[in-house]
Specification:
Structural class: alpha/beta
Largest sheet: 7 strands, mixed, barrel
Helix content: 25-40%
Number of helices: 32
Strand order of the largest sheet: 26-29-30-31-34-33-32
Distance between the termini: 10 Å
Oligomer: single chain
């Protein structure tokens, strides 16, 4: 059991400059170990955490030594425990997390344990930002109208979260309408250094949203994890992780005029994807850092999931301290942060000579080489230089269907769809923009690009340009601060004039909450098979995510979103073709694009500390709609069997104190057979519930009207709907369907083509196990625990893939599903597997006989056999498997303790 900390001798006092002390801290320099000085800053945060939490039980001295010896131990893929300082949730992932916690209390009760042990032991911040939809756009009244609809749809969910904030300790819920979780984290929640009862230590955070990495721009170590892992962290379990390699990314020079932070992040994303950084930290350094504002750094850190890294880390320096002051952190707090980080050699002072750090690999980018660009049409790392966009678009129309192809026949490429928009004659062509959204914390946290977009709008309005009325334009800032500086600058009115009225404070279009597009536009697209486009300042553009009818989706900076809305098409060369005609004159892109100097002046005079202070003073007071929600009291939740939002999940049904032990797979059918890059959006969509889907049928049977379906994301507190929504993405490509796209599969015993849910239920009722075959990067995209919970409820026992995305693999493990990887150079095709075979995977019956990463033989009923790597990567993961899942493991351990 736990012992006293063996490192207590390096616990020092941190003196204040004017006498007294800030508090005590574990001093890394006091280790007197030269290896520590050369460690990357991001690894020092892991080291400090291991030293502070060392109890020779959850965290051992040998774990500390592994981290100190990082240069030698990281290449060996050693395992370490990590205890983050806090947990961050948003409501799509927060509702199922609180459902699980409530259900765990019931399970503790049933097993005669103390249900109050199910309480967060570290601070948990939950920001409600994923529920607002763009129902109303291009209207002065949009914010209020959308919020009223948000509360009507989500009253029950919000009431449940409000209950959770009262029933659980250490849980702060930030009400709807406040902002986007990562922007609120950056501007308000991020501590940088904690002072808890006089003990100082670095802030670190895991969040149930993959873009938690945005906080890395503030020098706070943070990344996304699955909901189930976050719940275990809340309950005091150390996270088990492989000690990561660190790629050093050197930045030199400065950005050219007219180039934005968004152009930079799309360039960095492409470079790092090409290099390969999955499972690694990326640490930025170099003299180019002084040219990057904190908001620019946060933009780059935000897109870590898109380049595949666990973190994109920017150590704390003078720029960080300036930002902390700008955002209203007190002078005393900033002084404490600087003193602590300097004392522990975790502060970068570019005025001093820099000690060479050791990195696993190094990359370099001259900032002046970055050029204006966008990414798409289907993946964030498919960057297209702006000057090549027209040529690239025509290639996409020609290319066969794929990430860069739509296979539109030559004779159909110039097709014009005529329609009537509220009495006005209108036309749509391939590549025409139907959604233009300034959205997402990636960019709305950055005053340069937001004021840049507003300056583009002003110049366009002055020159007489307009946006076509059938383009759904919207502006959804990540915090109220944005509204304050846009109003102060006098530029919001020009955005409004072009239809970019503020629609709400939340994720909106970036996560698929784009709302309906006008019926006339929707009919023109579907009846003429038009490849319509969305342009958004978000971070994800996977198929079917932004809107079911926009097959081409491009990520762009906010000013470029405005430019493409004005052009009305992505089929344009901004260099040579006019963006439109204003006052009888051709207007070009260069006529409306602001200089860096104009943008900097707008930022300098309009973004002020009191705006941040006023916004965040009001945030905890809620809003009238939130404050009027009545919620039940009591520490155990009273489940309502009629609720279609909150339902008691079946994970702990019939649970006993004895672990069930490992399970193999016997004569399983293949439920689905996939190629590469199946994302968590394919596995567990967050967007709208299709009217013909099993989930829609379930809701209609319970008297829910179609207009009240809401989204899958908002229904994640109900396992019945989420099981039916698993693999329900309308763009799912399953090899069994021979080219047909959609959420169906073949039930092999009968040969029937049915929904994935119906096939899975059929197999279950017949007593058959099922598996999934997949290609590379299975489970990429959002850190979505329902992408593991859903398959578990469908009865999937194993997934065999070429490779897994980091978070998704650990989610599968957390739910007790076996992840297996084909050997290098092999996959279903090279092995001649059609998926019509039956699969047997024999595992030892006791967990002690299984080793992380061992070889496992898979045998089929037609005489084939092949070897896979078992992707339980750590001993702790094997313990979870033995217990039937991570939450079962936690419950049994809490009762025993």
């Amino acid at each position: 059991m736990a012992a006293e900390n063996p490192f207590k001798s390096i616990l020092k006092s941190l003196e204040k400059p004017d006498g007294g002390e800030f508090g005590k801290y574990y001093s890394l320099p006091a280790l007197n170990d030269p290896r520590v000085d050369k460690l990357p800053y991001s690894i020092k945060i892991l080291l400090e955490s291991a030293i502070r939490n060392c109890d020779e039980f959850q965290v051992k001295s040998k774990d500390v030594e592994k981290i100190i010896d990082w240069e030698n131990s990281a290449p060996k893929q050693v395992e370490i425990p990590f205890k983050p300082a806090r947990v961050l949730l948003q409501d799509f992932t927060g509702v199922p997390a609180v459902v699980d916690l409530a259900c765990m209390r019931d399970a503790m009760n049933n097993l005669k344990g103390d249900s109050n042990k199910i309480n967060p032991l570290v601070p948990v911040d939950l920001v409600i930002d994923h529920s607002v939809q763009v129902d109303v756009a291009r209207s002065e009244n949009a914010v209020q109208a959308n919020m009223e609809l948000e509360f009507q749809r989500n009253n029950e969910r919000f009431g449940f979260l409000k209950w959770g904030s009262n029933a659980f300790d250490n849980m702060l819920v930030v009400p709807p309408g406040s902002g986007i979780v990562h922007q609120v984290n950056l501007e308000y929640l991020g501590r940088v250094v904690f002072n808890t009862n006089g003990l100082l230590y670095p802030d670190s955070v895991v969040g149930t949203d993959s873009h938690t990495t945005m906080i890395d721009g503030l020098g706070v170590a943070g990344w996304g994890v699955g909901g189930i892992e976050a719940e275990a962290t809340m309950l005091g379990q150390p996270m088990s992780m492989v000690l990561p390699g660190v790629v050093g990314f050197k930045l030199l020079g400065k950005l050219r005029d007219g180039v934005t932070a968004t152009d930079l992040v799309l360039t960095v994303t492409q470079m790092l994807r090409k290099h390969g950084v999955v499972g690694k930290f990326v640490e930025f350094y170099g003299e180019g850092m002084s040219e990057l504002s904190l908001a620019d750094r946060a933009t780059i850190a935000n897109m870590s999931p898109e380049y595949g890294a666990t973190m994109g880390f920017f150590p704390v320096d003078h720029v960080t301290l300036q930002y902390l002051k700008l955002t209203g952190r007190t002078a005393d707090t900033v002084a404490m942060i600087e003193s602590y980080l300097r004392a522990n050699k975790m502060f970068v002072d570019y005025s001093e000579p820099q000690l060479e750090r050791v990195y696993s690999a190094s990359l370099e980018l001259k900032l002046e080489d970055v050029e204006p660009c966008i990414s798409g049409p289907k993946r964030p790392h498919d960057r297209v230089s702006l000057k090549e966009m027209k040529v690239d678009w025509h290639a996409c129309l020609d290319n066969r269907v794929g990430f860069k192809g739509f296979a539109v026949p030559k004779e159909s490429q110039t097709k014009v769809a005529e329609f009537s928009f509220h009495g006005t004659p209108a036309q749509l062509r391939h590549g025409d923009v139907v959604i233009a959204a300034i959205t997402s914390c990636t960019n709305t946290s950055n005053p340069s690009v937001m004021l840049g977009a507003a300056l583009v709008a002003k110049k366009a309005c002055d020159l007489g340009l307009e946006v076509k009325p059938w383009i759904k334009t919207s502006l959804a800032p990540g915090s109220g601060v944005v509204t304050k500086y846009l109003e102060k600058s006098g530029l919001q009115k020009y955005l409004n004039q072009l239809g970019f009225n503020i629609v709400g404070y939340g994720c909106t279009t970036c996560i698929g909450n784009s709302g309906d597009i006008d019926d006339a536009v929707a009919s023109a697209i579907t009846e003429n098979d038009i490849v319509a486009a969305a342009v958004l300042s978000g971070n994800r553009n996977f198929e079917g995510r932004v809107h079911p009818l926009t097959r081409a989706n491009y990520l762009a900076s906010p000013p470029l979103v405005v430019a493409y809305a004005l052009a009305g098409t992505v089929d344009i060369d901004f260099e040579t073709e006019p963006i439109g005609v204003g006052k009888g004159k051709k207007i070009f892109f260069r006529d409306i694009w602001p200089s860096n100097k104009e943008v900097a002046e707008a930022v300098q005079s309009n973004v002020l500390p009191q705006m941040f202070m006023a916004t965040y003073e009001a945030i905890t007071q809620g809003n009238p709609m939130w404050n009027q929600l009545s919620v039940p009291s009591g520490n155990l939740y009273v489940w309502d069997p009629k609720s279609t939002y909150i339902h008691e999940p079946p994970y702990f049904k019939d649970m006993t104190m004895s672990p069930p032990g490992p399970h193999g797979v016997k004569n399983a059918y293949c439920l689905l057979n996939f190629g590469d890059s199946i994302t968590t959006d394919h596995i567990s969509p967050a967007g709208s519930i299709h009217r013909e889907s099993p989930a829609a049928k379930y809701l209609m049977e319970r008297g829910v009207d179609r207009r009240d379906f809401n989204s899958y994301g908002s229904r994640r507190g109900n396992d019945e709907i989420m099981a039916r929504g698993t693999f329900a993405n309308i763009r799912l490509v399953n090899k069994f369907l021979k080219g047909e796209v959609g959420p169906k599969t073949i039930h092999h015993p009968t040969g029937d083509k049915v929904s994935v849910f119906d096939a899975a239920m059929k197999y279950k009722s017949e007593g058959h196990d099922t598996i999934i075959l997949a290609g590379a990067e299975y489970g990429s995209g959002s850190s979505r625990d329902w992408a593991a919970k859903g398959p578990k409820l469908l009865g999937v026992k194993a997934v065999i893939a070429k490779s897994f995305e980091r978070i998704h693999r650990s989610n599968l493990v957390g739910m007790g599903i076996i992840p297996l990887c084909f050997k290098a150079g092999e996959d279903a095709e090279t092995l001649g597997l059609t998926g019509e075979e039956r699969y047997t995977i024999d595992l030892p019956s006791t967990v002690s006989e299984i080793k992380p990463g061992q070889d496992i033989t898979v045998v089929t009923n037609n005489g084939k056999s092949f070897v896979c790597t078992l992707r339980f990567d750590t001993e702790v993961e094997l313990a979870y498997f033995d217990h039937g899942g991570i939450l079962q493991y936690v419950i049994r351990n809490l009762i025993k303790s």
